[in-house]
Design goal:
The complex is a heterotrimer of chains A (536), B (125) and C (448). Chain A has 536 residues and is an alpha/beta fold. In chain A, 33% of the residues lie in helices and 10% in strands. Chain C folds into 2 domains: 116 residues, Aspartate Aminotransferase, domain 1 (Alpha-Beta Complex); 257 residues, Type I PLP-dependent aspartate aminotransferase-like (Major domain) (Aspartate Aminotransferase, domain 2, 3-Layer(aba) Sandwich). The chains are: A alpha/beta (536), B alpha+beta (125), C alpha/beta (448).
Chain lengths: 536, 125, 448
């Protein structure tokens, strides 16, 4: 099967031929790389991984709605389950294995202390609707974290319940809509400004709330074009603008140095400043967003405060709010009440006009405990040092690679170093190929093709968690790849990468054209089963 | 006798009588990459010039298709449902998107002919 | 600081390589007036592991742990036994500290378990396709309504009075700010409402819960037919996913979208989150479904593998035209769900459900025999509603002071309806024992 395309972003080059017969093994395994079927191909009826007592016989109360027929779940014993998921785990790259330079995702160390405290009896096992008198310590945890977040951002209020960053954006922009409504301006202010380099969630959030998104171009220094912004906020159409959604430090890894002027222009036009706080980790303890004129900002606890990324969630996205928006924070509010705390929910006395409720219960408590453990471990001094080390490491990577790769912009960066693909021009190697070759060197690639404002973007975020020796090896590996790419003649080798990962490049086109989204008995062809093969 | 015209959104329209067949150009399919899905307008839908009326998706991109002229959709290329790859293989042949009955043939004058479109694409490179 | 590997020498050398004199110089793009010259005042400095752990033990000591007392609290979050294997697997660093599987060649572990998860969810719900999870049940319910609005191009959702009140609030909040109508039925403690009469040609969807918030078990097949006849969709919400081991699945009732709170399988109570939302639908609605999806494919050597797919629905590509602004799932909670359900398998999952139901039947009978208590339900799974002779909130408080966590007073979630003041929800899982039930019954006798 030889297809030969791979011209642009994310195209799947399926170029390599199958392994020669001499390298084939009977099992298909390659040493520690063990092929693993799906649980549905392992299960046997009659096996079970739990021992439960025989249920007492009762006359059922199911209103005649007892399930008939098999569900179709496979039966596995406990050792099989442990082996299955252990083998699967070994097909993953992880922060615990080394440099995970995925820009804008902040793959910093996830301390195990966080996991331990989140599981303590009396914390991890509380029911959200136990009487409030029996969960005072849990409410104190939420309030303590809230205090840290407010102090670190210099903002007067925080909404704790959003379940993730994008959910926090929804919360913040609903609060903006509520504030506009209170002023009788919601019908008139329908435009949200967002830089071209914005995360996709920003326009998606604004559009969901009925706003029209107006993109603001970037200048040649990778920042918001201040003149274009001021024009959009000027007398002609400034009265139509509800808010600006701006990431700072921005998605190019740069601090918006006109930020204060931007905030003033936004406020002068009667609009609000939503700051996407995805990159707050660069500035914690060194800059307070409240001092910049921000009205609301979500904080991704899994980025800045080290809660585990867990294969893509769960997240948590508390939103800090300015005095102008604070009264619109959603239910529930955790309120200090004499010696203790109470939960202000719907129908209870509350000093504001909440936008409503964003999720059941009180927020991502398991993430709060982990984030608080991280924050307490670092303290005010350590948080400030962590930001400094993150920025220092990114600039070190940038400085060490600038002669062989092509930095997208001049000057110091913040926590991540952005390159474009001009260093790969005429080499036949694309950003994607370069990234896949990093896999063979034992690294998780950087973020590719984002932000969109830079051609063939490569966004590297080393974080503060890597020792200098590890950064030096990472840098040397990237230099070697860049030099190999530029040396010519090696494009085919890049296109064949990765060669040493559990899988070669996967055919994403096939996956999308004929979606197979669940297992069915026909999924495993007999040639994939060594036992069946041997029997034949 | 048919005429073929091009829009600056990289659509082509081939007009025979008052029926126009619409698809995307070779250049557009190259930019998109492997097409995995096409969403087409239903027959009978009236579309205005410049209105988004179809979507073409590759693995990593989705693009709206805008009606190059106004009219009423008479037929959509149902075969693309099973074979979206036709858009890559034969963008101006089997990979057509839909046909419409033109409301105002003078709108064609605002579109490019083959030579003008070739120049337009060249300028993008 | 134990988490920071750079030494002062490293920092000096790195600054030298960069050509900067100090770290402050790297922050020169920050306007001078906003640059903090020293650490923020009034916050404590760093602490060792021992000190932090002690602080958390002190927080824990101010709470009443369910493990140590008779416990019957439910209402959307349930206390089940989680096998130790589950926590072992999810704490493996390769799962815990990996991210969204953007590079499929080195994230097959995550992708394969999500594919297994998707398959398990379709089987439980009796549906054709499922996504790789949502934040939780309540947000999934809200996303389901948005999806129904997109599919039907209508803007009026009808919410059952048996829907969890906080789920209802979440949908109403979305409706209010995203601009559609969400008409709620009155709270339905007796399970008698008739929604069929309220479905009309403007209805985009009807949202029901099974078992309902008050515990009733209902067949929604006729409602599904009525919805479909009117061009509307039926959304079935399940907040206790263990019930699907025993009950006819929503897919067999004709549901178009099924959303569940998956917490009960594999995930502890955790004071309300993070949990895991399950989301399943019909194949024909696939492209309107929110959230991540994993699909099967082959690699360059023809070997089976898995990738994120159909991502053109999502915000990072479609931006303002995306099906949802969501860009995360509940990966690790989904893994916990999958591992636990794999341990249970067909036989274990069914037995777990039987056990829950049998214990609930037992407690219902015993509690109903207490003077001043009447059982409202004819049908239930593992949770039911009783009417007390006194306001339930005060009774629950009184029992809490006796170290019995006796369920959720309905007024906690529906504060503005005096008719529910005396109603108490009691949940019983496999974790309930005679040592828990007997003190509850005795204490109710005493208090009422």
């Amino acid at each position: 099967m030889v297809q030969s395309f791979d011209r642009s972003q994310g195209r799947v080059g399926v170029a390599a031929a199958a392994a020669p017969a001499s390298e084939a093994t009977f099992t298909g395994n390659r040493g520690l790389q063990i092929e693993e079927p799906l649980i549905f191909e392992l299960g046997q009826s009659g096996r079970c991984g739990v021992d439960l007592p025989e249920p007492p016989k009762v006359k059922d109360r199911l209103n005649g709605l007892r399930r008939t027929g098999e569900i179709g779940l496979p039966g596995l014993s406990e050792p099989q389950v442990v082996q299955h998921y252990t083998r699967l785990s070994q097909k993953n790259y992880a922060i615990d294995m080394g440099v995970y330079s995925l820009g804008s995702c902040t793959m910093k160390h996830n301390p195990r202390l966080n996991e331990k405290v989140a599981r303590l009896p009396g914390i991890g096992d509380l029911h959200p609707l136990q009487p409030v008198s029996t969960v005072q310590g849990a409410l104190e945890v939420i309030d303590s974290l809230a205090h840290w977040l407010k102090t670190l951002t210099g903002m007067p209020a925080v909404a704790m319940s959003p379940a993730a960053g994008a959910h926090g954006e929804m919360c913040g922009m609903m609060a903006v809509a509520a504030a506009l409504e209170a002023k009788g301006e919601r019908g008139q202010r329908k435009v949200v400004l967002a830089p071209e380099s914005a995360h996709g969630t920003n326009p998606a959030t604004a559009a969901a709330l009925g706003f029209t998104v107006k993109p603001i171009p970037a200048n040649e220094r990778g920042r918001v074009d201040l003149l274009a912004l001021k024009a959009a906020l000027g007398p002609a159409n400034g009265s139509e603008v509800a808010a600006i959604m701006l990431t700072n430090p921005n998605t190019c890894g740069l601090f918006e140095n006109d930020i204060i002027e931007i905030a003033q222009a936004v406020h002068a036009a009667g609009a609000y400043f939503y700051c996407d706080g995805a990159n707050f980790n660069a500035i914690v303890g060194r800059v307070r967003p409240g001092d910049l004129g921000v009205d609301c900002m979500h904080i991704n606890l899994h980025k800045t405060f080290s809660t585990p990324h867990g294969g893509g969630g769960p997240g948590a996205g508390p939103v800090v709010l300015s005095a102008a928006l604070a009264s619109h924070a959603p239910y529930p509010w955790i309120v200090r009440d004499g010696e203790g705390w109470r939960i202000a929910e719907e129908g209870r006395e509350i000093a504001g006009t909440p936008i409503g409720r964003l999720k059941a219960f009180h927020g991502q408590m398991g993430m709060f405990t982990r984030a608080l453990a991280y924050i307490m471990s670092h303290g005010a001094d350590g948080l400030r040092q962590a930001s400094a080390d993150a920025v220092l490491s990114a600039n070190y990577v940038m400085a060490s690679l600038k002669d062989v790769m092509s930095p997208a912009f001049d000057g110091p960066c913040m926590h991540e170093a952005l390159f474009d693909d001009s260093f790969l021009k005429d080499t036949g190697v694309s950003t994607l190929d370069f990234a896949k070759a990093m896999i063979d060197e034992g690294y998780h690639p950087m973020t590719m093709y984002f932000p969109l404002v830079v051609h063939g973007a490569l966004l590297i975020e080393p974080t503060e968690s890597q020792a200098k020796e590890d950064l030096d090896l990472f840098i040397a590996a990237l230099r070697s790849l860049a030099e190999r790419a530029k040396g010519g003649q090696s494009a085919d080798a890049f296109k064949a990468a990765p060669r040493f990962a559990p899988r070669r490049r996967l055919d994403e086109t096939l996956a999308a054209r004929k979606p197979v989204l669940r297992w069915r008995p026909s999924n495993r062809p007999p040639e994939d089963d060594p036992l069946k093969q041997a029997a034949e | 006798m048919s005429t073929v015209k091009y829009s600056n959104e990289h659509e082509w329209i081939r007009v025979e009588g008052d029926i126009g067949t619409i698809g995307i150009t070779q250049y557009a399919q190259e930019q998109l990459g492997d097409v995995v899905f096409v969403e087409l307008p239903q027959a009978g839908r009236k579309v205005a010039k410049g209105e988004a009326c179809a979507v073409v998706e590759s693995v990593k991109a989705a693009s709206d298709i805008y009606a190059p002229v106004s009219g009423e959709v008479t037929e959509a290329n149902a075969a693309l449902g099973d074979a979206p790859g036709d858009v890559n293989a034969e963008p101006t042949g089997r990979g057509w998107f839909f046909k419409l009955r033109l409301a105002d043939k003078s709108e064609l004058d605002g579109l490019m002919d083959e030579a003008a479109y070739a120049g337009f694409v060249k300028a993008l490179a | 600081m134990r988490y920071l590997p750079l030494t002062e020498t490293d920092r000096r050398d790195m600054l030298h390589a960069i050509g900067a004199r100090s770290v402050d110089e790297l922050f020169k793009d920050v306007p001078a007036c906003a640059r903090l010259s020293s650490k923020i005042a009034g916050l404590p400095d760093h602490q060792g592991e021992l000190e932090v752990e002690r602080a958390f033990q002190a927080y824990a000591a101010k709470n009443l742990s369910p493990a140590s007392v008779p416990f019957f609290v439910g209402a959307g979050a349930y206390r089940h036994h989680v096998p130790s294997t589950v926590d072992y697997v999810i704490q493996r660093g390769e799962f815990l500290t990996s991210y969204t599987p953007y590079q499929p060649e080195i994230t097959q572990g995550t992708l394969q378990y999500l594919f297994e998860f998707q398959t398990q969810v379709t089987l439980l719900a009796g549906m054709e396709v499922a996504n790789a999870s949502m934040y939780d049940g309540s947000t999934a319910a809200s996303e389901a309504v948005l999806m129904a609005n997109r599919i039907t191009r209508r803007h009026k959702a009808l919410l059952s009075g048996g829907l969890h009140p906080q789920y209802r609030r979440v949908i109403e909040t979305t409706a209010r700010w995203e601009g559609f109508s969400a008409a709620s039925g009155k709270a339905d403690p007796l399970g008698l409402e008739d929604l069929i009469a309220r479905v009309d040609k403007d209805t985009s969807c009807v949202v029901v819960q099974n078992p309902s918030f008050f515990g009733h078990v209902r067949d929604f097949s006729r409602l599904a037919d009525a919805c479909h006849a009117a061009g509307a969709l039926l959304i079935v919400v399940v907040t206790e996913v263990v019930s699907l081991g025993l009950l006819k699945p929503p897919g067999e009732m004709g549901a178009d979208i099924v959303v569940c709170e998956g917490q009960s399988i594999g995930n502890g109570l955790g004071f309300g989150g993070p949990y895991v939302g399950l989301f399943a639908t019909r194949e024909k609605y696939l492209r309107q479904m929110p959230g991540r999806l994993v699909g099967e494919t082959v690699d360059a050597e023809g070997k089976r593998g898995f990738v994120l797919t159909l991502s053109t629905r999502e915000q990072h590509i479609r931006r303002e035209k995306a099906t949802s602004n969501i860009c995360t799932n509940a990966g690790l909670c989904a893994l916990a769900f999958t591992v636990h359900l794999t341990l249970l398998g067909e036989a274990g999952f069914r037995r777990l459900a039987e056990l829950n139901h049998a214990k609930a039947c037992e407690l219902a009978e015993r509690v109903a025999a207490v003077p001043g208590v009447s059982l409202l339900n004819d049908s239930f799974f593992n949770e039911f509603t009783v009417r007390l002779a006194k306001p339930a909130a005060a009774v629950v408080e009184a029992l809490a002071s006796k170290r019995i966590l006796a369920g959720v007073p309905v007024s906690r979630l529906i504060p503005d309806d005096p008719e529910v003041d005396n109603l108490l929800l009691l949940a019983v899982t496999e974790t309930a024992t005679e040592h828990g039930m007997a003190p509850l019954v005795a204490a109710l006798k005493e208090v009422l």
